[in-house]
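Reference record
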Amino acid sequence: MMVMNSVRVIVAFSALGFCFARAATPAPTASVQVPFVGCASDGQTGPQAAPTGKSKAVAIPAAAAQRLAWYKAQDGSGVLAPRGWHCFSTYGSDGSNLFVSPDAIDAKMLFSDDWKGFAGPVVQMSYSSGGTSGRFEVAKVIARVFPAYKQFTQNVIAEGIAPASGFPFGPYATDKLTYRAKNIVEFETPANMQGLGTDSRLLPNASPIDGVDLITGADTDLIQLSARFSAKDCDLIPLIVKQVERSAAAGTQ
């Protein structure tokens, strides 16, 4: 696999206009405060109320901070997303998923076998534990984009619990990948395509999905951000991606 160190300039067309979401790596800036929004959750041990918290210091431009908030459930990683959106989290022994959407989120829908996924703008922040049943999701992503951790996937396949065919090696054909380190890859899944962006609860549509995958921790855990915004908000995506990377590096998710 070719590792690309240069910053890509990607112009993506969305259903609502042109989106310059990945135009450049955000320049470092002074810390500013964004409001904390607690998110209710449900999972293995039952419903959990939305936590309360203090505003979050983040290194983003002040103008962007006026449009963003820090969303977090009781368990799992927090994430920046546009202010005024709705959020809900699911959790279990395998990890957690935090969803933030401009539309109200029906908790029952998230657990329904009939629900296919989010069709519109949304942020999904996921954590998969490499030391539990979350290892299967970790192994799938490693097979796709983290050759330095290939042995982890081979060990999971050797367990014989899941077929080897469920762990295809090599990137999705149409994904655009930018490696920041051997354990960090930013991605864009183009409109109407399957890729890392749709290895989530986001359905493909006429807009691209941007995000980042990170391998972290002694257990080889996976953090994945997948985000799809309308044209008016997609300039926020690179800021959100960089905050995920900074939080992971600092261990302050």
The chain has one domain: 32-250. DSSP finds five helices and 15 strands in the chain. The two ends are 29 Å apart (CA to CA).
